[in-house]
Amino acid sequence: MKKSYKKDTILKLLSSMSSEKEIRKYLDRFSSDDYRFALIKVGGAVIQSDLENLVSSLAFLNEVGLRPIIVHGGGPKLSEELNKRKIEFSFLNGQRVTTKDVLDVAYEIFSGENKKIVSALNDQHVNAIPVIGDIFSCNIENKDLGYVGQIKETNSNKIKDIISSGGIPVIAPIGYTEEHQLVNINGDKATLALAKEIVPDKVIFLSEIGGIFDGNDQLISNINIKDDYNNLMSQDWLHSGMKLKLEQIKLLLDSLPSNSSVSITKPLHLNRELFTDAGFGTLVKAGHQINKLKSLNNDQNNALVSILESAFKGTLSKNYFENDDKEFYISECNRSSIVITTFKDIAYMDKFAVINSARGEGLGNAMWNKMLSEHKKIFWRSRASNAINNFYKDVCDGFQKSDEWNIFWIGIHDLDELTACINYAVNQPATISYEN
Ligand code: ARG
Fold this sequence. Notes:
There is one protein chain. By secondary structure, this protein is an alpha/beta fold. It contains 15 helices and 23 strands. The chain is elongated and about 80 Å long. The two termini are 36 Å apart. The relative contact order is 0.09.
């Protein structure tokens, strides 16, 4: 009783940020994944300066029955402590050279940081379980790095057991060798190794900055590796830390199923990132294969009809495919499509559909950009009540409103031509019918 009451209260709270339907969609999606819901890497700096937000965001997840796997770092605190104790240390290729002295302090600090998270969660009645030094079986591969472990194998059964008994594992970046020697592991590497083993729906990096920012200091909301990676890596504003992270994320996504995603956000925004389409952070996906077709075979035809009917929640008219020449953009995942016809050699976007469960991934954007890169002049209409109109207003060169339709255009500058296009759009028969 108490639990569902609380759940409802929290849902209401989240609803102030977006529709309850949207939130429920994500709750359902994540709930079906049991231990595969999410792997969350908590940056070391977050434990030092943002523990409160971290704990309340995680307590919320726990409250709605979602149990993520937590891996944390501790680098900044370790450096601080080594300095304090006047123990010298250095880095080699981004990895901390770990002498016996450094290892002793590392173990002490990482255990301490682990305990901070675990007890703060326990105080909120979250059954957080510390996991220190017994799931990463390692080799020492590079003697120059000292006691640094290369992960050989991950014992994910222990993690699964904790989750299936209602706990949340909190994992420190410490491994062991065959000789029972404890070793230091890089927190990001531990996260990647675990992700490959667990294959979670989402991998989330919680940091103080909470995302990847562009040259104008604007948060980049979506990154599709396929479309954006090379371009991003060549930008001089992408500083080395972020470059490295993006490189690792690419490798990770390469080895996960194509619908997996990585989010970078901060503790305060975690639930907004998870439970809304727009999110709050940077969402990285492997990218979308989009096919452009001039004609459709039977399967493609069926796929298109179901995308359109699901996205518009109506029935497509039987003769939709009969009349004019059409051009189809369909995402490989069969979750989004654009249909183009032509009027006086100008492209008319007859349909643009993204099914509900694919919203928020940047798929619509990828479709749009692909279509736009191939059509310099284009016009379309949309019902005045359609929520996508704000997006259309942003991207169009101009628009005209009537009671029923908004007409938008790009690249059409001749007034006669424009008038003809607007007339054409307004007078197109409806091809989706709705039951009332
Ligand atoms: N809530 C969805 C997810 O977690 C979409 C997040 C969108 N985030 C973004 N930064 N664009 O997968």
